[in-house]
Amino acid sequence: MNLVYAGPDGHVYDHPDYIALGRNGELVTELLEEELIPLPEGATLVSLPDTRPIGLHAKTGAMEVVPGEVNAVGALLPQGFTRLLLPGYAKADKTKVLPLFGYTAVVWKDGGFYVAAEACDDPERWNPRNCDPDELEVKVQGLLTQYPENRLYQHLSNCALGYECLTASNTFLNRWEGAVPVSFSCNAGCFGCISEQPDDSGFPAPQTRMNFKPNVDEVVQVMLEHLKTPESIISFGQGCEGEPSTQAKIIIEAIREVRSRTDMGYININTNAGLTDHIRAIVDAGLNLMRVSTISALDDHYNAYYKPRGYTLKHVEKSLRYAADRGVVTSINYLIFPGVTDREEEMEAMIEFVRRTDLKLIQLRNLNIDPESYLQLIPPAQGERYGMKQMLEIFREELPGVVLGSYTHIPGDLAEMQKKHLQHG
């Protein structure tokens, strides 16, 4: 399997003199055949700026930094695929940080690109090619014309057309999971926040956070337009906003108004779940689905990344337990990273956390971060590292009633996924 690199011209090449390597955290490691799958449709190859690829010299077997003016290459995976290894690289300039993406090891073999990844969900629903730009443009203009005073539609139009956000696009295309952002503030200071970064962070946020507070009527209009089919999902808590539960009053009034007019579809919240009293009230208003973002079930790791303001991981757990006890289908948005998530202590803590909270789904999401910055931020490993592939196998064995996936599913779909898992298990 040949090492892949980017030349000075920006083109991607394979190097016949070097065998590709990957990284599990800071550890450079060989790639195994069973860890590789063909480059998925919708994946993107990117050059890692200010880096040099590391490979095994094909003749000597020595691990070397590839000479010349070349950069390491990684793959950005579409939804539905879980990264198993980082690209094998070293930084040429250690003061520089990589843009906030989830870089995956990529190799050239058998005449094509392969990546160190595993398919964990059906990628078809979130495949970018299913979003026709011409149709989207028409739909956006249609809703902007229909609701000229609705600031949410104006905001989401930029998310859909400018950032090409698929959840925002779904809001206009009236399908699957759509977005209804509500909050410009947050009760956490996430190290890897994609919508707001301090000026001295070193890496700019890739998108802009909303800067206004919508009124209830604006929220209700978006919700009612989207909740028109039994399988539709409308979601509070998007990448372009802060923590939605900080605007609990708006959410509660909007849910009650919408549910007084239709019982169609599902209402979801993507949240850090730290404001337990707010979450309880939102659940009681008629919430159907809840996805809670977490990076760890260990306090020191969680606190280092999220920098929670006025809440702890115990509050998060109480919110999840309350929602599950009242029939809300709960999941976690689990931000995973090779060499960290597969640590023995991380796995043990997360398995127990999932059991205590009665989760139905773990959404495995590749953490978008500069690896060196993240590894310096969090506590060092205490036990063995199992590797991501074995970690997934252990989770499936230890949590047979929990679906491992990549995105939010309605209860019927979850039941089918669980049935298939049990049949194959």
TrEMBL record:
Gene3D superfamilies membership: Aldolase class I
Elp3/MiaA/NifB-like radical SAM core domain sequence ranges: 176-397
Names of the cofactor(s): [4Fe-4S] cluster
Keyword check for Cytoplasm: no
Highest taxon above the source species: Bacteria
Keywords: 4Fe-4S, Iron, Iron-sulfur, Metal-binding, S-adenosyl-L-methionine
Database matches in InterPro entries: Aldolase_TIM (IPR013785), Elp3/MiaA/NifB-like_rSAM (IPR006638), Organic_radical-activating (IPR034457), rSAM (IPR007197), rSAM_sf (IPR058240)
Keyword Metal-binding: yes
SMART domains per record: Elp3
Protein name (Swiss-Prot/TrEMBL): Radical SAM protein
Species, as recorded: Paenibacillus filicis
Highest classification ranks of the organism: Bacteria, Bacillati, Bacillota, Bacilli, Bacillales
